Amino acid sequence: MKDPGYWWRKVQLLFGREKFAGDLEEEIAFHREQMAKELEEKGMTPEAARSAAMRQFGNTARMRERSHEVVGFRAETVAQDLRFAIRQLRKSPGFAVTAILMLMLGIGASTAIFGFVDAALIQPLPYAQQSRLVDVDESAEAFPRSNISREDYEDWKRMNTTLQSLDVYTGSGFLLRIGSTAEPVPAARVSDGFFHTLGVQPMLGRDFRPGEDKPGGAKIAMLSYGTWMTRFGGRRDVVGEKVSLSGDPFTIVGVLPRNFAFAPRGGAEVWVPLLDKPSCEQRRSCHDLDGVARLRDGVSLSQARADLQKIAAQLAIQYPTSNTGQGASVQALSEFIVGKVRPILLTLLAGAGLLLLIACVNVASLLLVRSESRRREIAVRGALGATPGRLLRQFVTEALLLAIAGCGAGVFAAVGMMSLLRSLFPKQIAQGAPFLDNVKLNAHTLLFAGAVTLLAMLLMALTPAMRLAVRDIHEALSEGGRTAAGRFWRRMGANLVVVELTIAMVLLAGAGLLGKSLYRLLHVDLGFDPTHLATVQLMMTDPASQKPEPMKALYRAIQARVSSLPGVESVGLTTDLPVQCFCDTDWIRVPGKPFHGEHHDVMERDISPDYMRTLGAKLIEGRMLTAADDESHLRVTIINQTLARKYFPGEDPVGKMIGDIKLSPKSMRQVVGVVGDVREAALDNDPLPTEYFSINDGPDAFFALAVRTRGDEKAFLPELVKTLRAMNPSLGVYGEVTMEQQIGQSPTAVMHQLSAYLVGGFAVLALLLGVVGLYGVVAYSVSQRTREIGVRMALGAQRSAVHRLILKEAGLLAGIGIAVGLGLSIGASVAMKSLLFGVRAWDISTLAGVAAVLGAFALLASFIPARRAARVNPVEALRAE
Amino acid sequence: MVYGSDIMAEKPELMPGTLDLLILQTLKRAPLHGYGIAQSIKRTSDDVLTVEEGSLYPALQRLLLQGWVKAEWRRTETNRRARFYTLTAAGRKQLGIELSKFERMVEAMGRVLRDAEEAR
């Protein structure tokens, strides 16, 4: 419609504003002069002519304004609005600061949580085409996902038709000797194509080549980036060097890139090919590997699953003793790695979102109160010719300004919150969650903050705008407008407060349930006394000492040496400490019971005679193991109550025998005692059937020590480590931690803690904001109704009746908020059921408790204005109008 | 946009949209300054049409932006500096359009008014 010249001239004028104004002034002056001259010619005195011309010329200010409007851009009026908005906000800094702080909190919290969601769920794995990567494992009745045996892996790799490649990995550990110092380092053994499958190229040197993982192959290793930097000084000539791993010389062939991380083996410093088969890998029935595969193009996850399940079924027929009941588990690698944190993150995101919503609603109602007190100003501006659109724009501009300031502050807050939250993860867990490194301000999080800000702005602009829309300017100008306006505001403000209280109720209920879960989790019956227990992991790295006799001697020596330390009450050795892992399982069979080849999975722990006493576990019947129980005598075992109940129902297990699937004579053991259930796996895992053998039966180079101390067990740890290191230079000593730390840092506890604390924090803020909102509404309502209250009192209403009147109003709002919130929170807690432990989603006592808390705060918030209402002096109230 | 609605009480108001037409038509004869334009319209219409200054200058800015008139500072006969507006080629074309538009409207109004007269 408008030709380019139009815009060109307009832009020219934009930069020539000074000249434009000057020209216009000169024209006006000339015009007036000419008019005066004309009037003078008609016989007026010069004085009179000038003033007549001035009068006739009219409102020059308005003319100037209109001329400027013609040549100005719309944006210039926006700038005007902005200047005005800034002036408005600076005039009431209390309001501005409160609003910006609230928005900062909401936007900051939700952006920070989104940072985690983005890192963990949206871009979880740092691999090429990560959506094609799958986690492949075997499955058994008790273990939906269990390790795969080396022979099964070799068959699966050969027989499958759906995988582009299938590779395996397993944990390991070496004593790394550099110069004169030797330190145990976590490591991983992988099949030759492992890195190729992940799509990872070494940054230095080369990858493992096909066939290099065969037994008897050359000893080669790759270093993780961190290890290369810290232990090898980042030397590029490290490739080709030999390094001593547990006494064996390995040639370093490559260094992994800096961004490489593989969560299931997050801490591994050294990566070696599978090579020789340890005893476990020589049996098809011993499962110690995990698989990772890349799907062939065009193959779906379910096709791959069906393919591998078919192969597993074939193998079960071919090798019935080892493979009966062994299926295949196939899931997306991302699901395996971040599946567990997904519900937590989504819950937290929802919580942060609710907090943001409540913050916005609060700011909106603050804006509403302001618009109420500014209604005269608005009416005057309207009467002076401001169009409703222009007035609306003023509100939008103010909301925009607040939202932008809140967003800016919120982004800063988010950065702080993200690093704070990241530091809350113990190192152990952080290694298994490499995505934590990606939690930072990036394009995604900024975009999210922007989107959230836009939504907040809409909400905040809409509320006063809606109010503006229904208002009549004339009504506002006249004082009589107060009643109608007051009613409108009461209704609108009341609705907002109900929303706030509802949200607060949902967050409080969620926090209550999560808090109760955490309490239940941390007070779960462990079956032992976790206080005053120091623990440490040990590893014999000298191959010559790994034989049974030297190992047994080592156990005895450690037992004797540590027991002699001051402050030590007792010392126990075990293969796996409690509350640590769902691992080391065994299949058992009870002679004389019907058996059809099914797998009775139980956990196996090898312990020293004093171990149970050291833990403080209870002996239920029979006896504990003694130093005399070793392979030279009749082989014995003690079992836990769950095993007794499951496999010896209604019988006395003491004196009964258990053995392996084939009941081979060598495997038969007599049950000599039953102990109370010790929680061996994660805190939220129900106790599992467990058998305890003597550690002397089959010595293991990897073991752990539990020491009960009389004094502070934490202060004892360094001495314990020093003593053990001094005993034998080939003994790797690592992972020293107190049992209470171990429990507190277990992934289950950390996740529960994190979600309970965060949602709890959100809930407290929501409660505060909601209650302040309620107070605001009730107090405003009281101030608006002063006259009405005065009339009531003048007509004989008692103070108590006025008190009741106000409390009733507040009670109604709080009641609706709590009731709606209650309904919604049951829905919300059902949705987060997977995060609850030992608490039902509709836990009545929790819901009733938080409803009572919210109710009490609401009462408190309305009590103050109610008292003020009851103190109204009727004479003053009536005179005030 | 309403022209001349501020002070003029007894004088007929300009019909909306006609101010641009009047200015363009006035400038067709010779370049004029703002005061000259107002005077010329007043004189030519025998004092019936008065262009209020508060409307004249914004209208001139609009025409300048559209490129229908040009403005330059010149000397008047009395050697006074004044801003003279000149019709451009585009303005001449626009004048034609506006004129025919106006004629159509007057014609239409005439028909309506005659109709009303007959019905009386």
Through-space gap between termini of chain A: 57 Å
Task: Give the overall average pLDDT of chain B.
Answer: 80
CATH topology grouping of chain B? Arc Repressor Mutant, subunit A
Strand content of chain B: 5-15%
Which structural class best describes the helix and strand composition of chain B?
alpha+beta
Counting copies of identical and different chains, the oligomeric state is heterodimer
According to DSSP, the number of beta strands of chain B is 3
3D shape of chain A? elongated
How many individual helices of chain B? 4
Q: Report the uncertain regions of chain A.
A: none
Which chain pair shows the most residues in contact?
Answer: A-B, 28 and 23 residues
When the domains of chain B are counted, the total is: 1
Spatial shape of chain B = elongated
Q: How are the strands of the largest sheet of chain B arranged? A: 1-3-2
Major beta sheet summary of chain A: 7 strands, mixed
Specify Rg of chain A, calculated over alpha carbons: 38 Å
**Rg over CA atoms of chain B:** 16 Å
**Total beta-strand segments of chain A:** 21
End-to-end CA span of chain B? 33 Å
CATH architecture type of chain B: Orthogonal Bundle
Characterise this structure.
The complex is a heterodimer of chains A (881) and B (120). With 881 residues, chain A is of the alpha+beta class. Among the domains of chain A are: 185 residues, no CATH class; 174 residues, no CATH class; 188 residues, no CATH class. Helices cover 54% and strands 15% of the residues of chain A. Chain A contains 29 helices and 21 strands. In chain A, strands 13, 14, 15, 16, 17, 18 and 19 form a 7-stranded mixed β-sheet that branches. Chain A is elongated. The two termini of chain A are 57 Å apart. Chain B has one domain: Winged helix-like DNA-binding domain superfamily/Winged helix DNA-binding domain (Arc Repressor Mutant, subunit A, Orthogonal Bundle). The longest helix of chain B has 31 residues. The N and C termini of chain B lie far apart (33 Å). Chains A and B meet through helix 1, helix 2 and helix 4 of A and helix 2, helix 3 and strand 3 of B.
